[in-house]
Design brief:
Strand 9 and strand 10 form a beta hairpin. This protein has 151 residues and is an alpha+beta fold. The strands form two sheets. A five-stranded mixed β-sheet has the order 4-1-8-9-10, with no helix packed on it. Strands 2, 3, 5, 6 and 7 form a five-stranded antiparallel β-sheet that branches. The chain starts with a helix and ends with a helix. It is 32% helix and 36% strand. This is DUF2057 domain-containing protein. Keywords: Signal.
């Protein structure tokens, strides 16, 4: 009798945990970057997984970093073009899929122009991408100070 009761409790607990896991998975929002535009952190928490990144609902601070290797000849080691950390704030809705990407950057010059004026494309649930300006650390801090001083 004890074994049967214990088995029923174990099966019931397993069912509840499975249901909770499935419901959490289906309500989560995700963010996908690209090979050259990597998600580094969400709300200051480092991302250790590859794509896609799980997002909490509400306003989220996303840190990304751009890096790409430009090589023009087979014997060329190439040149790495890398950005400093770049940030944007995303208002996340549940069960939404967000995709970020850079515009087409065919050369080192294109990549350097992008780093000097970083704007990415953001698509939500497969819609037409919209342009989104990124901020470096100094710009982000200045914006926070100005918004805090205005209150």
């Amino acid at each position: 009798m004890r074994t049967t009761l214990f088995s029923k409790i174990l099966v019931g607990a397993s069912f509840i945990i499975s249901t909770m896991t499935i419901s959490m998975t289906t309500t989560a929002a995700t963010l996908k970057g690209t090979e050259t535009l990597n998600v580094v952190s969400i709300n200051g928490q480092a991302i250790k997984t590859i794509k896609p990144v799980q997002l909490p609902e509400g306003k989220v601070l996303v840190e990304v970093r751009y890096q790409d290797l430009f090589s023009y000849r087979a014997d060329d080691n190439g040149t790495w073009i890398k950005s400093e950390p770049l940030f944007f704030i995303l208002d996340v809705a549940t069960q939404s899929d967000y995709q970020i990407s850079t515009p087409e950057l065919a050369s080192e010059a294109d990549a350097k122009r992008f780093i000097n004026n970083p704007r990415i494309q953001l698509s939500v649930d497969g819609t037409t991408p919209q342009l989104l300006a990124l901020q470096n650390n100094r710009q982000l801090m200045a914006g926070l100070l100005l918004s805090h001083a205005a209150k």
